[in-house]
Amino acid sequence: MIPLARPVLGDRELELVEAVLRSGQLSLGPRVPAFEDAFARRLGAAHASAVSSGTAGLHLALRAAGVSDGDEVVTSPFSFVASANVVLYERARPVFADIDPVTLNLDPQAAAAAVTHRTTALLPVHIFGYPADVPALEGLGCPIVEDACEALGAVHRDGTPVGARGHSAVFGFYANKQLTTGEGGMLTTGDAGTKARVDSERNQGRAEDMGWLDHDRLGFNYRLSDIACAIGLGQLERLDGLLAARARVAGWYREALGPIEGLELPCPDHDGDRRGWFVFVVQVPRGADRDDAVRELARLGVQSKPYLPAIHLMSLYRERFGHREGEFPVCEDVAARSLALPFFPELTEPEVAEVARALQTVLEKPTVPGPGTYRSPS
Ligand SMILES: Cc1ncc(COP(=O)(O)O)c(C=O)c1O
Predict the structure, then answer these.
(1) Could you read off the pLDDT of 315-344 as tens digits, one per residue?
(2) Is 195 one of the catalytic residues?
(3) Within its chain, how far is the Cα of 306 from the centroid?
């Protein structure tokens, strides 16, 4: 089976992790600031804080932006569920706005229309590594928290790397990401006050100048261990190669899948915006059965998955906010047809060709209505 994702770890990470294990300092040690500094330098961000996950980073970023009870946060319904869940953590309300059909990111006009006097923050998601139109959102005058969990290596059209515009931006280091620490995340910001607050809140609300057991605010355990930071340092050293390998695989996919009629591929870079390749997600042709395609691909030895479902149509969000089909038509259409294919730096050109052949075979198969399924004759 060709898997969906596979992390690339090597001797350098082993060497750095071994040094941590031998040092005896597994947490709150020197690798944490070393990883933060190297990450901030790489992006050109003023500050970076390592956290235990992308979700943890987004939670702390929203708190630092002042989001609390009853506030509204305008965000994309086409994302991994964590970007909306973090708003609920603070008893605020995620207000969804539809996405742009090309970039699949929050549509700035739809976001502007969703802003009310209760809006405390905008939370754009750089989905599938393509830069969200943050410059346009900056014109709306609200604090911005960027979900950059999928977007390491992405660059905005003005040349600014995603995560270096000065807003709080959060990267994720789960095992399928461009850079992995197994689990983990990094919050970048241009604001020293945000950095100080995040560093305290990730560490149980401990103030910088206080002893271990004195805490001056509510905090969490959202720390990243020295072991994880050592892996991150090793990954960072080879990040250029990892990103280039992903871009190369994406190029092979574009060529191999181009001839399949009706199949929609990830948008190419345009207007100077550059994607940091994370996943290769296609949208199956209208009328094709995406879920059947997943099953048939598995039968042919290719792992794939629906990616991503619309957040507002998940049970929690339907039940809590009364969301229904038809509210965000672009997102719903994309979500119903989206299919993630195997994508990782070590995927070979012949494997990409095999995936493309399998997908072609699956999509050419006539769709047979399942038992109890009514298909209109049109
Ligand atoms: C868009 C997006 N937001 C948030 C997250 C959450 O990151 P983590 O799994 O590190 O908590 C992810 C990770 O999968 C993601 O893809």
Answers:
(1) 999 999 999 999 999 999 999 999 999 999
(2) no
(3) 15
